[in-house]
TrEMBL record:
Gene3D superfamilies: Aldolase class I, Dihydroorotate Dehydrogenase A, chain A, domain 2. Pathway: Pyrimidine metabolism; UMP biosynthesis via de novo pathway. Homodimer. Binds 1 FMN per subunit. It comes from Enterococcus camelliae. NCBIfam families: PRK02506.1 (NF002702). This is Dihydroorotate dehydrogenase. It is an enzyme of class 1 (oxidoreductase).
Amino acid sequence: MLKTVFANHEFENPFLNASGVHCMTTEELDELDHSSSGALITKSCTPLPRLGNPEPRYINLPTGSINSMGLPNKGFDYYLEYVTNTPYTKPCFFSISGMNTDENLDMLRRLAASSFNGITELNLSCPNVTGKTQLAYDFEQTERLLNQVFDSYQKPLGVKLPPYFDFAHFDEMAKILNQFPLTYVNAINSVGNGLVIDLDSEKVVIKPKDGFGGLGGPMIKATALANVRAFATRLKDDIQIIGTGGIATGQDAFEHLLCGATLLQVGTQLHKEGPAIFDRLTRELEAIMKQKGYATIDEFRGKVKSFS
Ligand code: RRO
């Protein structure tokens, strides 16, 4: 019932982890492979390992989460070794987030030369590295990077975007993305640079960047749905969409699909529940579809109604 075709791969269901959650180590990646997720993605990596920001750097909140992890990862080689040598049973995404153009191009060259036959996600939206702006908020730099990427890289590749909040920005980014043979666009990364304060201590809740960090979970669902919908209605048909942001229930998943997503990534709620969440999400989404009389996702994907 939930079978999905994406980038010429067959997926048992549309769910996978959002990069960054439960995917830093091979043990965690194995747990995702053994879960009922439809796919898995590795933690965004850099050419060399990084420890990331000082702790506390991730806090769960009643309405979601705030994080400023600072791109901790075990380095490109660790994840390449995993995705090329593990007999995992489902489609695999490889996330890269270089600190500059050269690092991104270098990692793509190495992926191109490897036996990796999954899908690459280029993260243009890390909000938490001190002193770095989110690349995808700089339209010119994004266009320049994508030109360089597609000059040489030929395997399937998508980009992870930050949220946009203005129709002019949806239009401008879509115009740039439509120039390239992208496999997909993933909307959205965390909502950057929120601030959460603890009443008792009158103190921010995470240590890096004086408490500023990326927001996730239910509090960002409406922003995520808006971005999925905005890109679904602006991108050419052969660019598919991954919906990420605020998916904690089958209903949230259904709404993302109605807005036009094909795959669905789960971050904050996976962090709270662990990989068993994929049993619940698939069950809840199927129950909603049965109740509404849908036999396949294709019957309702992208068909959210507006007032006429
Ligand atoms: O590691 C992080 O701080 C991080 C990254 Br790379 C990202 O893309 N999104 C996020 O919320 N945190």
